[in-house]
Amino acid sequence: MPLTEQTRAAAREIIARYPEGRSRSALLPMLHLVQSEQGAVTAEGVEFCAEELGITHAEVSAVATFYTMYKRRPVGDWLVSVCTNLSCLLRGGEEVYERLSKNLGVGHDQTTEDGTITLEHAECLAACDYAPVMTVNYEFYDQVNPDSAEEIVEALRRGERPAPTRGGPLCTFGESSFQLAGFEDPRPEGVAGQGVGTPSLAGVLLAEAAGWKAEDGVAGAPPLTPLPSNAPPSAASAPAAPASSSPASSSAAAPASPAPAPGTPGVPQTKVN
Amino acid sequence: MPVTPVLTRRWTAPESWTLATYERLDGYQGLRRALAQSPDDLIKLVKDSGLRGRGGAGFPTGMKWGFIPQGDGKPHYLVINADEGEPGTCKDAPLMKADPHSLIEGIVIAAYAVRANRAFIYLRGELIHAGRRLRAAVAEAYRAGYLGRDILGSGFDLDLVVHSGAGAYICGEETALLDSLEGRRGQPRLRPPFPATHGLYASPTVVNNVETIATVPFIVNYGVDWFRSMGRERAPGPKIYSLSGHVTHPGQYEAPMGTTLRELLDMAGGVLGGRKLKAWTPGGSSTPLLTADHLDVPLDFEGVQEAGSLLGTAALMIMDDSVDMLKIVRRLTQFYAHESCGKCTPCREGTTWMVQILSRMERGQGDPDDVDTLVDACDNIFGRAFCALADGATSPIVSGIKFFRNEFLPITPVGPSGSTTSVAGSANGAAAGGAAAGTPGAYAGAH
Fold first, then answer.
1. Is B6 part of the contact surface with chain A (CB cutoff 8 Å)?
2. Size of interface A-B (CB pairs under 8 A)
3. Which end of chain A has fewer CB atoms at under 10 Å, N or C?
4. In which order are the strands placed within the sheet that holds B159-164?
5. With bands split at pLDDT 50, 70 and 90, how would you rate the model's confidence at B411?
6. What CATH superfamily is the domain B19-229?
C-alpha cells in the first residue's frame, strides 16, 4: 500500500510535537507511522521519512536498522513475542517458545506461510511478575504455558481475536504501530483494557488486608487521606506530639476529607485496573 | 510496618488511571503547593528529603536538579526515562498504567523546579498499553489546566509529549536515550559534558526515572519528615521491590528502603514450592548475583554495595536450587550481546565471544581454561566502555563463577544423551531440555 497524503498529514502532526528546528526527533514515531501503513519499514518508507525531515536515506536507514521493533520484512497479521529472558525462563518461557516454534514451523523473526503469525523470542518485557508472558501485537497474555499459548495462537490462525490478559482488545499490527507513532487509541475499550492484575497489586493488597499504612510511621501525618485544599503547605509535615498513630487517628486528622482512601471498608474496589 | 504503599496506594482504586479518581485521592494537591513556592525552595525540599534516583544509580535527585544552570538563557528540558527493560524490572510499567497522573503531576512539579517548559516521557515502545493510559492522561491534564499555558494561573507553561521508543534496551542509558529522542541510533555519549549542561539538543536537561518523579508529589504534599520516617538515613523513603522468578507470589511490594530479602520473601510466600534459595539478583540482571547467605542484607544502595552487589532497580529475581547456573549465565550474556549497541569494542566483541564460550561449555565442549578466559574477558570489558551496559554484562558471569565455580568446570562427560535439566523444572513441571539447552550434564553443577 503506497503512502498517501494522509500519511504525510500524520507525519506533519508528529513533527509539530517537537521544538522548532528539532524535527529529527520525529523520526522514531514516523518510522512507526510508515510501518503502520506497510507492515515494515520499506524503501519507500525510508524515502518518505528522509524527505519529510530533510535528512539522508543513510541517516534514516541507520536508525531503522538499529531498533528491534522496526521490521525489514512485512510482519504477519499477528506478531507473537515470547519472553525467554530470566524470570520467564525460570517459569517456563523457553518451553512456550519451543512449542510455538515447532507447531508453526518457524523460528525467531519468521512468518508462517499463510502470513498470519510472525514469531519472535523477546527480551525482558517488563512483566516479570506475570511470567511467563507472551504478547500479541504488544498486548499481554500472562502466565502462559505451552498448551495455553498454543491455543491462543491457534485461535489467531482461525481468525479469532482471543482476549489478552492485560492491554486493550487486540488490534491489527497497523493499528498498534499507529498508536506507537503517538496517536491515541480511538477505542474507549482500548484505554480501559486491564492494565494491572494481582501480581502488580500483591503488596498493596497485603497492606490493605493487614491494615498497614505508610503514615503509621509518623504521628500526625495523614498522607493517605485527601488534604484540605486551603491548608498551609507546612501543615502536612508538621510533627505532632504522640508517637502512636492508627489508621483511625490519621483519618481523624483530616476531617475535611471528601472521599475515603482505597481500602476503607465500604469502598468498592476492583482488584484489577 | 512491612509494606508501605505510597506510590502503589491508588492502584486498587476503581478506574485508578482517570483524572477523576486521581483528584479524589489527593491528586494535583502537591502541584498546587509547589506552584505556591519558588523553584529554588522546591529543589531544596527535594534535596532535604534525601530522595535518590530509583532508576538504578541512586543519584540524589535534588542535587541533580541543582546542577541545572539558571539564568543561562537556554531552554531547559525534563526527560523521563520510562524505557523499563532491565531484566527483572517491572515497576514503572504498572505505575504508568494504574496511576499515570502521579507521574504527570511529578513532571509538572519537577519541570517548574528546574525551569523547563518542555518535557518528554521516553516510553519503552513495547509498553503500548502504558502509552494508551499515559496519552489519555496527558490529554486530560491539558484539558484540566495542569499542562499547557499558565498552569493553574501560575504563569508557568509546560508542554509534555509521550514519545514511544522502538525496542532497544540501551535506550534506558540516559545519554543513549537522549540520542534516541533526537532521532538517532540509541548510542551512549562520552561524558563529560553531562546532560545537566549538554543534554537534549545540547541544552540543560534533567533525566529522571518514572518512580523517582512519581515520588515527588508525595514529598511536596507531606514533607521531608514524613518521607524520612521510612527507609534508611542515607536512602530514605519507600521503594517498590519487584519479586519474580521462583517465588510463590511474584509481584510488586512497596516497602521502606532497606527491607531485606528475608522480609520480602515472607510477604511473597517464600520460595516457590518450598524449595531452597540458590541465587538472586538484588536489582536486575546487571547487578551481581547474591546467594542465601545474603538474605539479611538491607536492600538500600549502601547495604547492597557492602554485600558486593548493587541495588539497581530493586528487581529481585529469585532462583531456587534446581537452576543450572551455567544456563542462566549463558542466557543473560546472550541478552547483553543482543542489546550491545556496538559502539565500544570491548562490549560489542566481548559479549559476543563470551556467549560462544558459554554455549560451548553448555554443550559439554568446554575446556579447563574457559573459566579463566571468561574472568579475564570480563576484566577487560568492565570499565572500558562508554556506558554501564558493558559493566552489567560482566555481573552475572563474574558473580556466577564467584559463587558457583564448580558449575562452570568441565568434568568427564556423562552418557551420550546427557542428563536432563530444566531451569523451569520446579515451576510447572515443564519438560526438560529445550533445543537451546543442548545436552548439559557434562558439568559438575548441572542437575
1. yes
2. 357
3. N
4. B159-164, B118-123, B77-82, B205-209
5. low
6. NADH-ubiquinone oxidoreductase 51kDa subunit (3.40.50.11540)
* DSSP code string of chain A: ----HHHHHHHHHHHTTS-TT-GGGGHHHHHHHHHHHHSS--HHHHHHHHHHHT--HHHHHHHHTTSTTS-SS---SEEEEEE-SHHHHHTTHHHHHHHHHHHHT--TTEE-TTSSEEEEEES--S-GGG-S-EEETTEEE-S--HHHHHHHHHHHHTT--PPPSBSSSP--HHHHHHHHTTPPPS-HHHHHS----HHHHHHHHHHHHHT--GGGGSTT--TTSPPPTTS-TTGGGPPPS-S---HHHHHHT-TT-SSPPTTSTT----S--
Nearest-Cα distance to chain A for B76, in Å, is 12
Q: What does the domain layout of chain A look like in residue ranges?
A: 1-75+173-188, 78-171
- Inspect the interface and report whether the beta carbons of A18 and B37 lie closer than 8 Å: no
- B221 vs A contacts (CB less than 8 Å): 223, 227, 236
The ranges of chain B annotated as CATH 1.20.1440.230 are 325-415
Q: How confident is the model at residue A79 (pLDDT cuts 50, 70, 90)?
A: very high
CATH number of A1-75+173-188: 1.10.10.1590
Cβ-contact A149, A183 below 8 angstroms = no
Q: Give the nearest chain B residue to A176 (CA atoms).
A: B128
B100 and chain A: CB distance < 8 Å anywhere? no
| Span(s) in chain B for CATH 3.40.50.11540 | 19-229
CATH number of A78-171: 3.40.30.10
Cβ contact (<8 Å) for B90 and A216? Answer: no
Closest CA to B171 of A11, A109, A19, A69: A69
Query: What CATH code would you report for B325-415?
Result: 1.20.1440.230
Query: What confidence tens digit (pLDDT) does each residue in B361-371 have?
Result: 999 999 889 99
What does each C-alpha distance from B218 to A252, B6, B9, B25, B102 come to in angstroms?
20, 8, 11, 12, 9
Q: Which residues contact B186 (CB under 8 A, 6 or more apart)?
A: A66, A67, B165, B168, B170, B171, B173, B176, B177, B179, B180, B341
Mean pLDDT of B282-293: 98
CB distance from B368 to chain A under 8 Å?
A: no
